[in-house]
């Protein structure tokens, strides 16, 4: 029986997938791929866009709709359906992949399926990928952390006071999902213009953006696919 493979796609640029991940997708009989609804009720899938850009046969892609809500009941229901379908196909000796953007083991809700498969003794394996903040650092020409510097990654909710505390503890900071803490980021920039701020959105796509002017960063709203790297200003 083939293990179910969780393939990390990277942040958006198809060329940032690993060779190992690409080989797994190319040999798969079925690739489970998340999609979401847009505000105008159309479906969109960054993951599917990446896969199709790699030349994978679209017939092998099985999309599932993932509700974008803090209430996780519907998402868990969608994951349960994937679990049932994937295990059925696996029992028929099919090669199954389940994909995630970024790295499947780094703030990816796809872990719900992985954990359930493991708990039930079903063979699984995970292929590593590049998380968005690493790709962002490369885009900005940054060393995200130098030598003995610490790095703290915050998944959305934070305060100006928490950021100040971490900077004082010699930790650089990555904040993901900035739309959850826009006001606090604006406030932090106002209180601490001496920090070095690096803003990124839609990394790895044609719409990617990089800003390092703190006043400009403090004047905009942040979409879901955005992140901020805050560092000591050593100049």
What does this structure look like?
- The chain folds into two domains: 124 residues, Tetrapyrrole methylase, N-terminal domain (Cobalt-precorrin-4 Transmethylase, domain 1, 3-Layer(aba) Sandwich), CATH 3.40.1010; 100 residues, Methyltransferase, Cobalt-precorrin-4 Transmethylase, Domain 2 (2-Layer Sandwich).
- The protein is built from eight helices and eleven strands.
- Strands 1, 2, 3, 4, 5 and 6 form a six-stranded mixed beta sheet that branches.
- Strand 7, helix 6 and strand 8 form a beta-alpha-beta unit.
- It is elongated.
- The termini are far apart.
| Sequence of secondary-structure elements | EHEEHEHEHEHEHEHEEHE
Helix content: 25-40%
| Low confidence ranges | none
Assigned CATH class of the largest domain: Alpha Beta
Mean pLDDT: 93
The CATH homologous superfamily of the largest domain corresponds to Tetrapyrrole methylase, N-terminal domain
How many discrete structural domains? 2
The dominant shape is: elongated
- Number of helices, counting only DSSP H or I runs of 4 residues or more: 8
Query: Structural class, from secondary structure content?
Result: alpha/beta
CATH topology of the largest domain: Cobalt-precorrin-4 Transmethylase, domain 1
Largest sheet at a glance? Answer: 6 strands, mixed
Please give the alpha-carbon distance between the first and last residues: 57 Å
The total count of strands amounts to 11
């Amino acid at each position: 029986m083939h293990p179910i493979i969780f393939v990390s796609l990277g942040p958006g640029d198809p060329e940032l997938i690993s060779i190992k991940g690409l080989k797994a997708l190319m040999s798969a009989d079925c690739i489970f791929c998340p999609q979401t609804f847009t505000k105008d009720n159309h479906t969109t899938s960054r993951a599917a866009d990446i896969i199709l850009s790699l030349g994978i046969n679209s017939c092998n892609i099985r999309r599932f709709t993932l509700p974008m809500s803090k209430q996780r009941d519907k998402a868990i229901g969608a994951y349960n359906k994937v679990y049932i379908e994937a295990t059925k196909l696996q029992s028929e000796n099919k090669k199954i992949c389940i994909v995630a953007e970024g790295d499947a083991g780094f703030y990816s809700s796809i872990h719900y399926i992985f954990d359930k498969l493991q708990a039930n003794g079903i063979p699984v394996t995970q292929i590593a990928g590049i998380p968005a903040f690493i790709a962002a650092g490369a885009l900005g020409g940054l060393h995200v952390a130098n030598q003995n510097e610490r790095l703290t990654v915050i998944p959305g909710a934070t305060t100006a006071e928490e950021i100040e505390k971490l900077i004082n503890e010699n930790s650089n900071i990555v904040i993901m999902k900035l739309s959850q803490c826009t006001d606090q980021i604006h406030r932090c920039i106002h209180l601490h213009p001496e920090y070095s701020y690096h803003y990124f959105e839609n990394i790895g796509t044609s719409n990617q953006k990089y800003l390092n002017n703190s006043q400009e960063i403090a004047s905009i709203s942040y979409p879901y696919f955005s992140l901020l790297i805050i560092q000591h200003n050593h100049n």
